[in-house]
Amino acid sequence: MSEFEPKIVAFVCNWCTYAGADLTGTSRIKYASNVKIVRFPCTGRIDFMLLLKAFAEGADGIIVSGCHPNDCHYTSGNFHARRRWVIFRGLLNFMGIDVNRIQFSWVSAAEGAKWADVVNGTVTAVRELGPYTQYRKAADYLAQQDQSIIDGQEAMIIK
Question: Which residues are CB-neighbours of 26 under 8 A, at least 6 positions away?
């Protein structure tokens, strides 16, 4: 049996981490290729419901990365993201989602090697945790409930 390859989604800042990831590629630094990058203007603009949606769509792990504190292109966006992360961790614990599946980091545009380390470290950690299936079960259950509500409404309209 082949080794489990996790699906990782990275939500990154356009000005720092995305540029750092670009530097990683142009410097030909090798890192895991199973990370899909979603670029945002700033990590402060990331709605953490998107992270839950990523899990529902099949992600096994997530990276959120932006500018270092006091280096934000928009002055304080990374501070907003950090405050949200503290609250979101509590929500994840309440929902039973292992917080080790999400990596929150700061990577500047000049830190291509650090981006490679963050990606490789996250992939290794998520690989050890195994595939994430609990959230998919909940998403399937909710989809079935939505369908039964729709079916019930159609039955009421037909009568």
Answer: 112
CB 14 within 8 A of CB 40: yes
Burial of 119 (0-12, 13-18, 19+ CB in 10 A): buried
Q: What is the pTM of this model?
A: 0.84
Domain at 8-132: CATH architecture: 3-Layer(aba) Sandwich (3.40)
Q: Are 116 and 32 in contact (CB under 8 A)?
A: no
C-beta atoms surrounding 16 within 10 Å: 26
Domains of the chain: which residue ranges? 8-132
Interval 110-120: pLDDT, tens: 999 999 999 99
Which two structure tokens, joined as six digits, stand for 74? 């928009």
SS3 string, 97-148, reads: CCHHHEEEEECCCCCHHHHHHHHHHHHHHHHHHCCCCHHHHHHHHHHHHHHH
